[in-house]
Design a protein that fits this description.
The complex is a heterotrimer. By secondary structure, chain B is an all-alpha fold. Helices cover 71% and strands 0% of the residues of chain B. Chain B starts with 19 loop residues before the first helix and ends with a helix. Chain C has 11 helices and 1 strand, in the order ααααααβααααα. The chains are: A alpha/beta, B mainly alpha, C mainly alpha. Chains in contact: A-B, A-C, B-C. Chains A and B meet through α3, α4, β32, α26 and α27 of A and α2, α5 and α10 of B.
């Protein structure tokens, strides 16, 4: 494993060490055994690489050995060679489903898109969803069944389980335990229920390391029973975010982000904007968009919330007496909230303690948010994960009361609270079966490792945040003989030949029968076609909030001196679930711009006090458990708070093993999110962190135009600059199409979805940490993050930067061989096969959007050939590349339109970034068409282009960033 | 090596003891005599050793691509281009001395022009190879040639790189012919003085049957004069075009109309400096004190001084533009140059190219070989730093703060530098051995003149 | 001196040849390249002889970038009735019986960075024979053009002479007659904008 993963980002040093010329040639030159694969784009490029390696000429001369064409024997209906097909399914995280459409080329899944019909997606696809296609193909997934660490067979496993089953039946299932994550799948829950019937004494435990337990407990105390919430941001004029993950992580955040952004575009809402207040200990995406933000440590935050509760009339008035910092700020915010009763939403992140959630709900209740901005539904994942559940299990295991433990796609050895010592307990279980996607820590510690199917390989079903059900259909035959959870449970039922298709289909046949839906086949095919089971969303229920819930709160705890550790989910690797995905590892984190690592995030002031700088390695000790972590100084972080991103530092599994440090080792069941009293010590070592942004501020350039709503209302074109466009030469004419892009800085929340979408669509290779350190990252689209204002709590602007497709492009004039040229639609083309690699174009690009293949990154990328997008050339070593506005999609649309002798209609072309964007910040289209979306965006008075003083005439333009500050609060920029 | 060369006020260009015959023998013997001096072997061995590293780095480069260097995005050009400019400047210096001063009929040029041209011929290949090495796909460099038989497309004539390619090609070809034309009579002399058969044949063939008839002389003189007349403006244009490679870009730090003259000044000073070093080497090594007199060194030193002053002027404008101008990017770029990560290089070039050469105002300095040699060496290094400062810091601090970055040279960057130096030394020492290093025919004229007075 | 002149003249000639002649020699262009095929399929027999339409086998030529190689079942629609025991058809019957596809050898091979789309050429009145030559008369399929970029461009830069009425696109023996509308006319009718056809992005992505 680790060899393979080193191979991924082989460093120059390793290269130099590598013994023998022969191996070198073998690596750089084509692997001839691969050359016979049909329909393989890479082989041609490998060949060119070889030709180059020998300094050869590669454009003319006789054919390489002939390729072969293999037609079908019987052509499947509907498959047209050369055309894409899309199939609906869903991908789940923490049990919650998001609908996707998967693009197939010649029956091979190549790209994940959001399913526009699915409520949790609305067509958008997060970075993690986009990257899931790579997980499907990942050659490092677990591929063989291991029994006692030896390679074993499915049959042996079945016999083993059957023997055990007899005994278990005899004692009614005593000693049998099932451990899963949150389960929303109706069919799986039915199977578990059936298991419960067969083995009454069996116990089912659930463990979600990053669960929403506090939220659940709070709503139990506030509403009487655990209920899920859905938020209606259309009704929210004011959002008060308490380190909220409303637009970054809550189930359904893609949908919320769209609603959120729709009310942040003053030029489209007729000058209206929602107002966002944020108080948080560590930066969040919604905090970055907030009009007013406070960086508060947990204790101050609690105090502030009590104060706010008091002055909004939600809590006892005497709380006003206790002095708090920023009282004026809170008062102004409270007034604002009070003025907008019924149209406010107070949302606290899942990491907040129960107390904060109670306070938030109390304020929501007092301001009439329930029923307006908050709708309640029955829990989608009932008896959702509780930490107690895992504690109970570990207790029984250590006590020897568990002799059979079945774990479905969960990794407690890695992510269970450190104080529980799950590993030791697991060793006391005679028979433990772990169904796992990777040979992860738990799988290796169990007696049986069963490779799991990736979601796109098996039948299944799951529910979305609003309860909507999706039936998941396999997109491809199982690549690595995995088995689905349904099959494993069926074995426990006594089924010797479990087939996931049968299991899921039978469940739904019977389900529809009970629901009285007549025509099952129609239902089945319709559900699979559109990707959702129609009207399966959970109905809203009403519950009267208990106004006196706050009385149960103890007195506010005094803020304690010393640093506190905050355990937070890494924004991209999902608490460890996705850490094996190279795309996600190499995608820069929104704030730190960090790749291939996690780091201890510290506020500038605190760092100065402790004498720490970026890259200093810190030893963090707590209750005798030690972790060594590199420091990253993060503006906007609350003083004395150290954020430790969870999900890294695996010791087993795939690519992710040995990357970063494991913060779970400090995390206890008592304090899962915040712990005090940890001791820090400098090790004196330093560690190189691979960040991608050179400078944090605009350095006097006119890159981010920003203003306030009032300014905009007074004078809508207050951000216009005098027209600087002067040219001695006649203008080019673009009679037919003028493809252009508009990016709205108000909508961009910096979630990085577009970055990964672009990578997936355009065959952009990963380069590895060493190359990122050498500033050779290949992303065509980047999201620059600029700060301004005080470093303790700066204003943040996210700015996606693709190629500007300048009408007067500096890159074009300097290329000596016409490798980058303009076309008649105004696209700035990059012709890879003509490029000889002078790199002058990149030097001459003011926006620095060009990327160069310093090595054969694509040839080194070890993803299987069939996983690349055949519509896009895979670039080989020594050529420049850059954003093409997804020219393959443009050409396809143009050809289809030309065949019917009409112009491409607006919306027929969506670039990959636009398609994946949850907030519709990116719009692409034909500027010549006056009523196209892009033309309307560009007509806005907020529209501007980057570095327009250079007169490059970019086709990509931006809508200025408008904030809606409360006039009663001193503008923080002032 | 004398500490101080005596420098008579009204100078004989050649020493008193030089007669026509002694001259021919003194010079051509260096070519003909079998016993080669040890210093030659040492120099040649050094050259070959470095050349070997060049070969190794070339192989490594072709196997792995330009990624072996420290270049990245934003700094997509590194040592290769900086050194290309450096070498082409050194080469042009040779042409300036030999062609420009031929047209001005400066007598001191006659003895040094052969050294200058030999240097030019040895430096030009280095300059020619680097741009090709730095291509992402070196094998396809020939796409720069204007032909379209297979792809139906032509090179882009708007690109400074293409002008550069054309100029460089013409320049190198012309230089070879120019060198050869001037060499013809001397090759004949060597042939006539040669004793062994193979030398007679070797130089006989090269001499193209020259027997010094009046017609031969007339033709050779005309051709030579015409060529000088072409070469002199050409070297200026070549260097201006190299300057345009940068001026043609909008990158802050490059986008400046002063680059063409700026680069020409650089060529004058660095070229002369290298000639100075080599002249002193030859003078001392071959004991040609009578032919290459203090008068020559003095003249070269003055040219160097002028070059240094001109360069200083360019540096002033380089600073004035950004400071006076309104472009914030240009200004931040310039302040980054002088105070930023690469500041040492900037101040290094100021000291070595401008400050120290001012010593040459003092006659005493111009008469000390040691000082002249070390000042020249300083200038060569300083010019390298100048090229570095032009190419790398400009790229590392462009318009987009989010994409500011730095460049660290890798082992292979240094290998490329050492390698080209090796190529230069090997070629120079080889030619030193094969051709008369002082133009006998021209010095003969001077000697004749001297006698006639 | 004269010898020198002659020598340089020769050198110049060699350069000229190597640039303008060598690349277009058959060895390099591989024109008339005619590989062995598992079944000696004859377009001449099926098209000229039996008058089958191109689209009978190449079904997706009007809809997709890829014209489509017929699945074995297409062959068997007829050859389950006629020539049922012909030895040359054994591989076809084998394939149909075993479900293992036939392995045809590709004759027209474009580099992977070239994206050719059959359907748009068909839709704009470019006949099959414009690129595939006298395909209707080929006993064994062979490569007709050089497939050099300059060859593609010759048409992309001046399409008019290569256009024909849409109803003649699939006619392998079509000849321009006096009453066929002129290329200019057809170009206008098909809304072809020749200036855009030589944009690099038309074929290279």
């Amino acid at each position: 494993m680790s060899i393979a993963h080193r191979d991924y980002w082989r460093s120059l040093e390793e290269l130099a060490e590598s013994p023998g010329f022969a191996q070198l040639v073998e690596r750089e030159a084509p692997r001839f055994r691969d050359m016979l694969g049909p329909l393989d784009r890479r082989n041609f490029l490998r060949l060119m690489a070889a030709a180059m390696a020998l300094g050869g000429l590669s454009d003319c001369g006789p054919e390489a050995e002939p390729r072969q064409l293999l037609p079908y024997v019987e052509q499947p209906p509907g498959i047209v060679p050369g055309q894409a097909r899309y199939y609906a399914t869903a991908t789940t995280r923490s049990g919650f489903a998001t609908g996707v459409l998967i693009e197939h080329r010649m029956a091979r899944p190549v790209k994940v898109e959001g399913n526009p019909d699915h409520p949790a997606s609305l067509g958008a696809a997060s970075a993690i969803m986009q990257a899931s296609i790579l997980e499907l193909y990942d050659p490092r997934r677990a591929q063989t069944i291991l029994g006692q660490g030896q390679i074993d067979s499915w049959e042996h496993l079945i016999t083993a389980l059957f023997d055990r089953r007899e005994q278990l039946l005899a004692r009614g299932g005593a000693g049998l335990r099932l451990l899963t994550g949150a389960v929303t799948s109706p069919s799986l829950r039915a199977q578990i229920a059936l298991l419960q019937q067969q083995f009454p004494a069996m116990r089912w435990h659930q463990w979600e390391p990053l669960g929403r337990g506090n939220e659940r407990i709070a709503s139990e105390r506030m509403l009487g029973r655990p209920l899920d919430r859905r938020f209606d941001l259309d009704n929210a004029d004011i959002i008060f975010a308490i380190e909220s993950d409303l637009i970054s992580n809550v189930p359904g955040w893609l949908a919320y982000a769209r609603q959120f952004a729709a009310h942040r575009r003053p030029d489209e809402t007729g000058g209206k904007m929602s107002r966002i207040y944020a108080i948080e200990s560590t930066p969040t995406l919604i905090g970055a968009k907030a009009d007013h933000r406070l960086a508060l440590g947990p204790a101050d935050l609690a105090a502030a919330m009590r104060y706010l509760a008091a002055i909004t009339g939600a809590g006892p008035q005497d709380w006003q007496q206790t002095p708090v910092a920023d009282a004026a700020w809170l008062r102004a915010a409270a007034d604002d909230l009070n003025q907008h009763k019924g149209r406010v939403l107070v949302h606290a992140g899942r990491e907040q303690p129960v107390e904060i959630h109670l306070l938030a709900d109390a304020i929501n209740n007092a301001l009439g948010a329930f029923g307006q901005t908050i709708r309640l539904i029955e829990p989608v994942a009932p008896s959702g994960s509780t930490d107690q559940s895992l504690e109970a299990l570990v207790g029984d295991m250590t006590a020897g009361r568990v002799d059979t433990l079945v774990m479905l796609e969960t990794n407690p050895v890695y992510d269970a609270p450190a104080d529980l010592d799950f590993t030791a307990a697991l060793n006391r279980v005679p028979l433990s079966v772990s169904l796992a996607l990777y040979a992860d820590e738990t799988a290796m510690a169990s007696t049986w490792l069963v490779p799991a199917t990736q979601e796109y390989e098996a039948w299944g079903d799951a529910r979305a945040f609003d309860g909507t059900i999706t039936i998941q259909q396999p997109q491809v035959r199982r690549l690595y003989n995995g088995h689905s959870p349904h099959e494993l449970l069926a074995v426990l039922h006594g089924n010797t030949l479990p087939i996931d298709y049968q299991l899921v289909r039978d469940f739904w046949q019977n389900e529809t029968h009970q629901r009285g839906i007549g025509d099952f086949d129609r239902f089945w095919h319709e559900a699979l076609r559109i990707g959702i089971v129609e009207n399966s969303a959970a109905p809203t229920v009403t519950a009267t909030p208990n106004a006196s819930a706050l009385t149960s709160l103890q007195a506010a705890e005094k803020p304690v001196p010393g640093v506190q550790l905050l355990f937070r989910e890494d924004p991209l690797v999902g608490g460890g679930r996705d850490v094996n995905n190279p795309w996600l590892l190499e995608t820069p984190r929104p704030f730190t711009r960090l790749t291939w690592d996690n780091a201890a995030l510290i506020a500038p002031a605190t760092a100065k006090r402790l004498g720490l700088g970026i890259g200093d390695v810190l030893e963090i000790a707590d209750h005798g458990r030690k972790v060594r972590a590199p420091v990253f100084v993060l503006p906007g972080q609350a003083a004395d708070c150290i954020t430790l991103p969870l999900g890294f530092g695996h010791t087993a599994g795939g690519l992710g093993a040995d990357i970063g440090f494991d913060a779970y080792r400090l995390r206890t069941s008592a304090a899962p999110w915040i712990t005090r009293g940890a001791t820090l010590s400098r090790t004196g070592e330093t560690y190189r962190l691979a960040t991608v942004q050179g400078h944090d501020r605009v350095a006097g350039r006119d890159l981010v135009r920003e203003g306030t709503l009032t300014e905009y209302q007074d004078n809508p074109d207050f951000l216009r600059r005098p027209e600087t466009d002067q040219s001695l030469y006649p203008e080019y004419k673009y009679p037919r199409y003028a493809w252009a892009m508009a990016i709205d800085l108000n909508s961009c929340i910096g979630c990085q979805s577009c970055v990964v979408a672009c990578q997936a669509e355009n065959n952009i290779p990963t380069v590895g940490k060493d190359m990122v350190l050498q500033e050779r990252i290949m992303h065509w689209l980047r999201i620059d993050r600029y700060y301004h204002g005080p470093v303790d709590n700066p204003a943040v602007a996210f700015e996606p930067v693709p190629c500007m497709h300048c009408e007067q492009a500096p890159c074009e004039v300097v290329c000596p061989v016409h490798a980058t040229v303009h076309d008649h639609d105004g696209l700035n083309l990059m012709v890879y096969n003509r490029c000889i690699g002078t790199r002058f174009c990149s030097n001459n690009c003011p926006y620095k959007v060009r990327r160069f293949n310093y090595f054969g990154f694509a040839e080194r990328d070890d993803r299987p050939p069939e996983s690349w997008n055949p519509e896009v050339t895979v670039r080989n070593r020594g050529v420049m590349e850059k954003c093409t506005y997804c020219i393959q999609r443009i050409r396809h649309a143009e050809i289809e339109a030309d065949k019917q002798d009409r112009l491409v209609p607006d919306g027929a072309i969506q670039t990959a970034c636009q398609q994946s964007c949850p907030t519709q910040a990116i719009i692409f289209g034909n500027r010549n068409d006056r009523d196209s979306g892009v033309a309307r965006r560009k007509a806005s008075l907020l529209d501007y282009t980057l570095l327009d003083e250079l007169n490059t005439r970019p086709r990509t333009s931006y809508a200025a960033l408008i904030r809606n500050p409360n006039p009663k609060i001193g503008d923080r920029e002032a | 090596m004398t500490v101080l060369i005596d420098l008579p006020r009204e100078a004989p260009v050649v020493g008193p003891g030089v007669t026509l015959r002694s001259l021919s023998e003194e010079v051509s013997n260096r070519v003909l005599l079998p016993n080669t001096p040890r210093w030659w072997w040492i120099g040649f061995a050094l050259g070959m050793a470095l050349l070997l590293t060049f070969v190794v780095q070339l192989i490594w480069l072709f196997i792995n691509g330009v990624g072996i260097w420290g270049i990245n995005i934003p700094v997509a050009w590194g040592f290769a281009i900086a050194e290309y400019v450096w070498w082409i400047a050194l080469a042009s210096g040779g042409t300036i001395v030999s062609a420009l001063f031929f047209l001005t009929r400066s007598p001191w040029r006659s003895a040094t022009n052969r050294i200058a041209e030999t240097m030019l011929l040895s430096a030009a290949p280095c300059a020619g190879l680097l741009p090709i090495m730095h291509l992402g796909r070196q094998g396809l460099f020939y796409w720069l040639f204007p032909y379209s038989s297979v792809m139906g497309v032509w090179p882009q004539v708007r690109s400074p790189l293409w002008w550069d390619f054309v100029c460089l090609l013409c320049y190198i070809l012309m230089s070879i012919m120019y060198y050869y034309t001037g060499l013809l009579p001397d090759l004949a002399t060597v042939r006539d003085l040669a004793r062994t058969r193979w030398k007679q044949v070797f130089y006989g063939v090269l001499a193209l049957g020259w027997h010094g008839s009046a017609r031969h002389w007339r033709n050779q003189q005309t051709v030579y004069a015409v060529m000088s007349a072409i070469m002199a403006p050409m070297v200026i244009s070549v260097h201006s075009v190299v300057g345009l490679d940068f001026a043609g870009g909008i990158t802050p730090g490059w986008h400046s109309t002063q680059f063409p003259p700026y680069f020409f000044f650089g060529a004058v000073i660095s070229g002369t400096a290298l000639i100075m070093m080599l002249t002193i080497l030859v003078r001392w090594g071959y004991g040609l004190e009578d032919v290459l007199t203090g008068y020559h060194l003095n003249a070269l030193a003055k040219v160097m001084l002028v070059g240094s002053v001109m360069l200083g002027y360019a540096y002033v404008w380089e600073a004035w533009g950004p400071i006076y101008g309104s472009d914030v990017a240009e200004r931040t770029q310039f302040f980054y140059r002088i105070f930023g990560f690469y500041a040492a290089c900037y101040w290094g070039k100021i000291v070595l190219n401008i400050v120290i050469p001012q010593l040459l105002w003092l006659p005493i300095v111009r008469r000390s070989e040691v000082l002249l040699f070390s000042i020249s060496a300083g200038i060569i290094v300083g010019m390298w730093l100048e090229r570095f400062v032009i190419v790398i810091p400009s790229l590392s601090h462009g318009y987009m703060p989010s994409y500011w970055g730095v460049f660290f040279p890798t082992f292979w960057d240094w290998a490329a530098l050492a390698g080209t130096i090796g190529l230069f030394l090997s070629l120079f020492f080889l030619l030193l051995k094969l051709v008369p290093i002082v133009s006998m025919s021209e010095v003969r004229e001077i000697v004749a003149k001297e006698r006639s007075r | 001196m004269n010898t020198a002149l002659v020598l340089s003249a020769l050198l110049f000639l060699v350069l000229l040849l190597s640039v303008w002649v060598v690349p277009v020699m058959g060895y390099n262009t591989q024109q008339r390249y005619q590989p062995e095929q598992p079944v000696p399929f004859s377009h001449k027999h099926h098209v000229a002889g039996l008058g089958l339409d191109c689209r009978y086998c190449h079904t997706s030529v009007e809809t997709s970038s890829f014209a489509g190689i017929p699945p074995t079942e297409t062959c068997m629609t007829c050859h389950s009735q006629i020539w049922t025991h012909a030895a040359v058809l054994e591989p076809v019957r084998q394939s149909f019986a075993t479900g293992v596809p036939l392995r045809w050898t590709e004759v027209y091979r474009l580099p992977d960075y070239v994206y050719f789309n059959h359907s748009i050429h068909i839709a704009k009145g470019i006949g099959c024979t414009e690129c595939h030559g006298p395909i209707g008369d080929m006993a064994l399929t062979w490569k007709w053009p050089t497939l050099y970029m300059s060859w593609c461009l010759s048409c992309h830069r001046d399409p008019a002479p290569h256009l024909r009425p849409l109803n003649q696109v699939f006619n392998p023996f079509w000849k321009r007659t006096p009453d066929t509308p002129s290329g200019k006319l057809l170009m206008a009718a098909y809304h072809i904008h020749p200036e855009t056809l030589s944009d690099c992005g038309v074929c290279h992505r």
